[in-house]
Amino acid sequence: MTYATARLSDADIEALGSELDRIRADVVASRGERDASYIHTVIKVQRGLEVGGRTLLLGSLLPPLWLAGTAMLSAAKILENMEIGHNVLHGQWDWMRDPEIHSTTWEWDLVTPAAAWKHTHNDLHHTWTNVVGRDRDIGYTIIRMSEDQAWRPWHLAQPAYNLLLAAVFEWGIALFDLELDDVVHGRKSKRELFDQVRAVLGKAIRQAAKDYVLFPLLSGPSAVPTLVANLTANVVRNVWAHTTIFCGHFPDGVEQFTVAEVDGETRGGWYLRQLLGSANIDGSRLLHVLSGNLSHQIEHHLFPDLPSNRYAEIAPQVRALCGRFALPYTTGPLYHQAASAWKRVFRMAFPSHPRPSHPRPSHPRREAAAVAPYAMA
Amino acid sequence: MRFTRSGRTIAGDQATPLLILGEDAGVVMPSGCRMGICFGCVAPVRSGQVRDLRTNQVHGEAGELIQTCISTAATDVELEL
Questions:
Q1: Which ipTM score applies to this complex?
Q2: B45 with B64: CB under 8 angstroms?
């Protein structure tokens, strides 16, 4: 626990939790037409970009058409994965009861099947956010992103292979979602792995057939430029997703936790961990939409199932709460947060000592709470 | 409380999440985070109403997918599991 949390008593943490519950309840009570029309608009724009982009690419022998088509397709893929796919799969739009826009039916334009990703992401990552040893997203089992993760010589190469990972991110996620290490350690059955490998292969073949065979063939004489355009759009989307996602939990100021620290965690404690374990990105409305509102990672982690268009609206309330409880609210512009996350990739490539173990929070927290200055609110 | 696919009927209380009631009765229940965030436990209601433990909101229409981990029975409930 840090200086900030050391000053919170158990009662403070529960008070923080109630305030956050109230913010959530307000949004849930007011969800309606305005939100539905937001997601319908985003889907319409995404489809327009995709159809437009792919149409222009039919004539992609002409460089201006190639450029415009590739840009539109890249934007379409980014919107589909981030603002639509990620958020639909979180159940953010399930309340509309529209079977077309529902976490149980959505399949996205990404190699990893939605079902596999929902398990590793919605369940494991969001439940165990930043708990070293439980949150497998801390480096996706191949990149060392915490002093508390054992250093191995191959980590020296992690800046290089993280760069490569950015380009092929969707394939990395597909592999990661198979949880091969769990199979090796007997935590997951070979049968389950077999079924999952079959599902991911089927999906990979469909994805590759669509982008690298079907649409290029439809382009006739522009087949090769179309293929290159589709490949480019996938790489652009991969690099963008990798960059924004790395800004979510790895920049300076974000805290990591040990399994012991979350033992017996209450709902308030879970909220607190989400707050301290996430970082936002400052930027324009366009940046928020293109990042799937993961630029509001803090709000997303507090309320993963609230519609993404609401995160910007509740952010000031969350930030004010942080002020009131003297808690950090980590945020910064994209270039700054991305550089900060990359700094960690480089730093953790080299051996380092584990963080000093933290005292059990109860006593120091209670004593310090008596002099905490936040009560003025 | 009735699980229509597995054909089990149990007398549950109105405080225990449906997920736990089902598991205790030996029904194969889909599950995930167990705290209402991952949507890994959703199942369709056939009849009856449920209460959301977080908001106390009572809801439930035939065919509605509900999160069993944070829902308790508000009336007699039939789940398609």
A1: 0.92
A2: yes
